[in-house]
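FORM 7B: Structural annotation worksheet

SECTION A. Query
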Amino acid sequence: MNIKLLVAIKQAGKRQGEVASEAGMSDSKLSLIVNERREASPDERRELARVLRTSQKALGFGAAA
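SECTION B. Predicted structure
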């Protein structure tokens, strides 16, 4: 599980579905990313960082691609 991403979602005061919608992805896709069953694409990492107003690295994605 990507704890850093999950914590960032909670700290933003948003539900996972809200973040997914704002990032332009389905709830199920974000769930797969959070549960590390699917790797986020560079665009998805960028959008999640934008929506959560943080860096990709802070979300547990490592260096920006």
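SECTION C. Observations
The mean pLDDT is 95. The chain has one domain: 3-58.

SECTION D. Sign-off
Analyst initials: ____
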